[in-house]
Write a structure and sequence with these properties.
Helix 2 (32-45) crosses helix 3 (62-72) and helix 8 (211-220) runs parallel beside helix 10 (237-246). 47% of the residues are buried. By secondary structure, the chain is of the alpha/beta class. The protein has helices at residues 6-15, 32-45, 62-72, 105-122, 141-146, 156-168, 188-195, 211-220, 229-233, 237-246; strands at residues 20-25, 49-52, 77-79, 93-99, 125-133, 173-177, 202-205, 224-227. An 8-stranded parallel β-barrel has the order 1-2-3-4-5-6-7-8, surrounded by 7 helices. It has one domain (6-246): FMN-linked oxidoreductases (TIM Barrel, Alpha-Beta Barrel).
Length: 253
């Protein structure tokens, strides 16, 4: 996939009612052997995207991880950075995350100011993303690192208004995340509320541990399902979740 094509592909899939499945890879939790196995499974399962990143990334494996994927398959690689240092020029695109659900100015705009020159120099496709952390029933790394209170799981209206504000501020994607290791996934009612109030693609992640949940989230309005933690524990879920996501009846918007 050529530079500048990733966001167009996301929008095209949404316009055609096609749901997408992205596998999240944390460079701190994989090695070369595990990556080869993961890539093979992803290709055979029809995974649409790889997301690469994590809340910390304390290893120096980010570039190598991205290159390994790029050299062994044609699945696009999108960076999902937990900090301004998590940038790789080898990726296809980068989610430029602004934590719109919190009130921490560093994660709304502060780190972006610091990282902007380097990110622009990298020449990866930049996709501005309104990032919303939703309470998943347990303290998560993202909520700790961000020092921001998640949106309560039952406050659908707050989530809806936050997503609307993000879209009106120019965000190209809305990403709702219950966080890695969440005890519960985001509710279908919240997803439906948010999906019905925005036009940009909606990404849902965190706490999705089985194909049924992935399917229901897509039916509720999610355009892209992201799974990482569950796959780290059981890689066989890749094929099952991919099949569930891609089996959602096409509904052209």
């Amino acid at each position: 996939m050529k530079l500048k094509d990733i966001y167009s592909s996301l929008c095209d899939r949404k316009a055609n009612g096609k749901k997408s499945f992205a596998v999240l890879v944390d460079p701190d939790k994989v090695n070369e052997e595990k990556m080869y196995q993961l890539i093979k499974l992803a290709v055979s399962s029809g995974v649409d995207y790889f997301l690469v990143g994590g809340s910390l990334v304390i290893s120096n494996y980010l570039d190598e991880c991205v290159q390994l994927i790029k050299n062994n398959c044609s699945i696009p690689v999108i960076l999902f950075p937990g900090s301004s240092t998590q940038v790789s020029k080898y990726a296809d695109a980068l989610l430029y995350l602004s934590l719109i659900s919190g009130r921490n100015p560093e994660l709304l705009i502060g780190q972006h100011v610091v990282s902007a020159p380097f990110i622009k120099q990298s020449r990866v496709e930049i996709i501005s993303t309104g990032y919303m952390v939703i309470d998943g029933g347990a303290p998560t790394t993202v909520s700790y690192i961000s020092n921001a209170t998640p949106i309560p799981a039952d406050k659908n209206e707050i989530a809806m208004c936050t997503a609307m504000a993000g879209e009106m501020l120019g965000m190209k994607l809305i990403y709702m995340d219950a966080g890695s290791g969440a005890k519960r996934a985001i509710t279908e009612s919240m997803i439906e509320k948010v999906a019905g109030s925005i036009e940009v693609p909606l990404i849902i992640g965190g706490g999705i541990t089985n194909p049924e949940k992935a399917y229901l989230n897509c039916k509720a309005g999610a355009d892209i399902i992201v799974v990482g933690n569950a796959i780290e524990k059981d890689e066989s879920l890749i094929m099952e979740i991919a099949s569930a996501v891609h089996s959602v009846p096409t509904k052209v918007v």
